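Hey team,

Filing this mostly as a record. A colleague (T.K.) asked me to run one chain through the structure pipeline before their review meeting, and I want the input and output archived in the tracker in case anyone asks later how it was produced. No errors, nothing strange. Just documentation.

Input sequence:
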Amino acid sequence: MARLGVTPVGHKVWTEIEDDFCRLLYFDHFALRQILRHRTARAIQARCCKLGFGRKYHRWGPLERQKLRKLYPEASREEICATFPDIPWENIQAAARYYGYRRKKKRYVITGIAANDQVRAFCYDLGWIMRDLDEESGTGRYFQRNGSRRKYPDFKAISKAVKALGGILEVRWQEE
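Output structure:
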């Protein structure tokens, strides 16, 4: 390869002059592309990384993946960052997405309206989102948009949702 200046695949071998350009201009990829016209952008990026000027990638080993799998669903962000101190939160999230780990879904916000809160709690236990509830009950987009924000609730929509969930909406009077 050194004698021919070509790799077995047919690519040109990187010369010391090209490496010097990478060392001088690693921060300006546009200038490097202009100087090294015969190299692709990906090849320049890979060479800069190999020379130690690129973004550092973290390789997740099996023990780290196991820790992440156990912690990610329920642990707080601070606990996870403390467990992996050298890795930024964004990279931890990206690794979790890549491996298919998900955070545990938070409970729905309490509205203070007993009927609405019970419907929302039942949906959480079923694993339904508010969109599913709207589709099943035929309430348009009431629960998606206004179900937790309305000052005056729409008991007709809540009644439809209760029927769709197989429940009964009833009124109880306090006895003295």
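Quick notes for T.K.: The radius of gyration is 29 Å. Residues 51 and 172 are 75 Å apart (CA to CA).
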